[in-house]
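Suppose you are handed a protein chain with no further information: no name, no annotation, nothing but its sequence. What can you learn? This example shows the usual starting point.
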Amino acid sequence: MAKENARNRMIRQLLEFKDAGLDVYINHVTELTDSHYGIITDGENIIYIQFATYSSDTLFSMSFEYVPSRKNGSGVGFIESKESLTMNDFEECVTYGRRFAARYGAELYRSFEQYMKDPWHKEHYEKL
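A reasonable first move is to predict its three-dimensional structure. Written in structure tokens, the prediction is:
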């Protein structure tokens, strides 16, 4: 699959979540060879999606994002490779991520606004 088609596929997947009532964001790209990834949020929980591997433009992975730390990183993976993602996947990822954060002491974002205060996030994402 060509990189341009990969971006369209990512946008289509994100728009399915938007149609379900979530806010969705996609990364800015400057080259066709750039990777494509996005953020899905209900305003409180932040889920990152990308293609499962850099060589795959057909399978998605999903992870729950929390405040980065040396101990816990910036998120925990939930789905490793799936052809499409659903609201059920979103909800299960949130549940899994929150349990993981509680168990290992990862700090949750208080809101999506807190997440977007990071200059890197603000610079790299655009709302669909």
